[in-house]
Specification:
This protein is of the alpha+beta class and 125 residues long. It is built from 4 helices and 4 strands; from the N terminus they run H-E-H-H-E-E-E-H. Strand 3 and strand 4 form a beta hairpin.
Amino acid sequence: MKTLEELKAIREKMQNQVTMREEDHGRTRVLVGMATCGIASGARPVLNKLSDLVQENHMNDRFSVTQTGCVGLCQYEPIVEILEPGKDKITYINMTAEKAEEVYKEHLLGGHIVQNYTLASADIK
């Protein structure tokens, strides 16, 4: 069983990691699908990786990582959506923590969409 101090520390860490529906003030929003379908497909490590990268690199002023509900594309979970001000939404599918780190480096920091992981690259029938 956790002590009260340990629980408070966990709560504070999670509140700092995930921005829940706050005003973004021009920041790029990173949405991770965390409905039952997303969680069952492995979205939690994806969310944790993106949150950790933003926190560790002190990028809170540029990016907000937020969990969202079902996107309606359960077969492609885990899903990450990138919403940059003034740009079209980019949807990444079948994400893993490793892919999320690549998207963070290439797309969020470098400005280059990782086409192989996007919804547009999927063979949708």
